Structure formats: structure tokens, C-alpha cells
């Protein structure tokens, strides 16, 4: 079964507590109305976890999570969105028009959906951190191999001090980042990973991934800009990691709050 999670809406994703999709009480159940966007697996999902407002008023209270099968009446998929990178992954809009829900569709407790998401999002963020590093490490290895072979002015381009020092810095950043991510994975495995530590791992790895990938493109020269080269595609694929799973700015908000600021 292909699943998806629908939190982000056309009106905004960072301010999750302001979501507008609403499940209105009707008899023993609810009628779901609203729209989601940028949903990973949206075009192919069999089942979507949808965050919707069930309580009165605004804010984080009164949000609930529902399990919504794609076969339900009132479930509609919009466009498969055309992205800068990651063309193989499906990212889509979803619409709900008077979609009927009953008690068995509720995931967790009514009105505690926001709390449930906050409990689980650190897991998504450490997953993102692991993936960010896993994508960039082999790319750096490939680039180092290229810099040993590619010659300019009679020497391998990696032998020029600028490039040698740059590669030394990038390799160091990746190793140091890996050590922190490994610590966080261990904390997660023992149920001790805090929201702030997960946020640190997510924003930092996204930043490092983008920084290293951009430098790799530069070292490949013109080939680095050709989509037939993996380095160019990796550069396009990497850009989103600073935006999704909670943007890097939102990660810094979480860390700032943890610092008592
Ligand atoms: C490829 C892709 C896949 C995605 N998959 C999913 C998915 O499966 N499910 C899902 O629910 N969502 C998904 N998203 C949505 C993603 O989580 C949101 O795009 C993200 O949370 C940002 O929300 P937004 O796009 O509405 O930007 P906005 O919230 O409008 O933010 C715009 C800019 O303002 C900044 N900003 C906002 N608030 C603050 C603040 N307080 N301080 C400083 N800066 C701030 C943001 O960091 C951002 O730079 C996906 C997005 C993409 C691109």
C-alpha cells in the first residue's frame, strides 16, 4: 500500500497550526473539505493521513488526523507537480469535497492531531538527515576521483591548492556531520531524540548537502551543468532538502525556542 501524509496546504506549510482543511461533524462522523499541496506520493497513494481542523477556532488545538483511502467519494487528485529536481518522485495536490469520515477513520485522539504530528516529526527529520548525508557522501567520493583524473595546466585539478583545500574542508564537514547524525540516530533508537536535536540534524545536513553538491558542480566544470552527469542532477535534487520536512528557518525556530529565546 502506498501512503502519504497531507499537512501542507496552498495557504501555507510552515504555520501548520493555521491549516484550513476542515472536518465538520455530521452524525457519528465528519464531512471533510479542503485542499492539500506538495504531497509526496499524492498521485499514487492508496491511503493518505490528512490533518484537518475538527475543533472550533484557530490554532493548534482542534486539529485531528484522519486515514483517508483514495477510493472514498469526494477524494480528488490534482496535478502531479513539475519540480526542479527529483522528477522520479510523485508530488501532487489533493482535494476533499464533502468526503465522509467515521470514527474508525480517526488516527489517534480527536483534537490532538497537532500534538501527534509534533511527537512524530522528529522521526521524519532524522530520516531526512540520514538521507541528506547518504546522498552527498558518494557524490563527494565521485568528485574526488574526478579531481584526481581531470587535468588542467598539465596537472590534476585536485592538486591545485585551492581545490585540494576545498575538498579537504568538504570531507571534514561530512565526517563531522556524520558523527552528529550517528549520535542522533542512536538517541532516536533509544527514544531519547529531542525535537531540537532532530531539527539541528535536519537543517545542518540539508545545508551541508547543498554546500558540498554546489562545490562538486563547480569542480566538474561545464560537465557539472549537464543533466547527463549525476552531479548536475544531484544538485537539482538537493535544493528541496532546505525547504521540506519543515524548512531550515523553521528548524532554527525550534532550536531557538529550545534555547529559551
Ligand atoms: C518536493 C516536496 C515534497 C513535499 N512533501 C510533503 C508531504 O508529503 N506532505 C506535506 O504535508 N508537505 C509536503 N511538502 C511541503 C513542505 O513541507 C512545505 O513546502 C514546507 O513546510 C514550507 O511550507 P510552504 O511551502 O507553505 O512555505 P511557507 O510556509 O509559505 O514559507 C515560505 C518561506 O518563509 C519562511 N518562513 C515561514 N515562517 C517563518 C518564520 N517563522 N521565520 C522565518 N522564516 C519563515 C519559510 O522557511 C520559507 O522560506 C513538500 C514540499 C516539497 C517541495
What does this structure look like?
This protein has 261 residues and is α+β, with helices and mostly antiparallel strands. The chain has helices at 113-149, 161-189, 195-219, 230-238, 248-258; strands at residues 3-6, 22-26, 29-40, 47-53, 63-69, 75-80, 91-101, 106-107, 151-152, 155-156. The strands form 3 sheets. It has a 4-stranded mixed beta sheet, covered by helices on one side. A 4-stranded antiparallel beta sheet has the order 2-3-7-6, with no helix packed on it. β9 (151-152) and β10 form a beta hairpin. The longest helix is centred in the middle third of the chain and has 37 residues, at 113-149. It is elongated. It starts with a strand and ends with a helix. The mean pLDDT is 97. Residues 4-8, 12-14, 38-40, 83, 91, 240, 243-244, 246-247, 249-250, 253 line the site of flavin-adenine dinucleotide.
Amino acid at each position: 500500500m502506498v501512503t502519504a501524509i497531507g499537512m501542507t496546504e496552498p495557504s501555507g506549510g510552515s504555520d501548520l497550526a493555521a491549516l484550513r482543511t476542515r472536518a465538520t461533524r455530521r452524525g457519528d462522523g465528519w464531512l471533510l473539505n479542503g485542499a492539500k499541496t506538495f504531497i509526496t506520493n499524492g498521485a499514487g497513494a492508496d491511503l493518505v493521513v490528512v490533518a484537518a481542523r475538527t475543533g472550533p477556532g484557530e490554532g493548534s488545538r482542534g486539529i485531528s488526523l484522519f486515514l483517508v483511502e483514495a477510493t472514498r467519494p469526494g477524494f480528488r487528485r490534482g496535478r502531479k507537480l513539475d519540480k526542479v529536481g527529483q522528477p522520479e518522485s510523485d508530488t501532487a495536490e489533493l482535494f476533499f469535497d464533502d468526503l465522509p469520515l467515521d470514527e474508525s477513520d480517526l488516527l489517534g485522539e480527536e483534537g490532538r492531531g497537532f500534538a501527534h504530528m509534533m511527537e512524530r516529526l522528529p522521526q521524519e527529520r532524522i530520516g531526512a538527515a540520514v538521507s541528506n548525508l547518504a546522498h552527498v557522501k558518494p557524490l563527494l567520493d565521485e568528485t574526488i576521483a574526478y579531481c584526481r583524473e581531470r587535468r588542467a595546466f598539465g596537472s590534476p585539478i585536485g592538486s591545485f591548492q585551492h581545490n585540494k583545500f576545498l575538498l579537504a574542508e568538504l570531507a571534514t564537514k561530512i565526517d563531522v556531520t556524520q558523527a552528529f547524525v550517528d549520535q542522533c540516530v542512536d538517541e532516536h533508537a533509544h527514544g531519547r531524540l529531542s525535537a531540537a536535536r532532530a531539527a539541528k540534524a535536519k537543517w545542518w545536513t540539508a545545508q551541508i548537502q547543498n554546500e558540498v553538491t554546489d562545490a562538486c558542480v563547480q569542480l566538474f566544470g561545464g560537465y557539472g551543468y549537464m543533466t547527463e552527469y549525476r552531479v548536475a542532477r544531484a544538485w537539482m535534487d538537493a535544493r528541496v532538502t532546505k525547504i521540506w520536512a519543515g524548512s531550515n528557518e523553521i528548524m532554527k525556530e525550534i532550536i531557538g525556542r529550545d534555547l529559551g529565546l
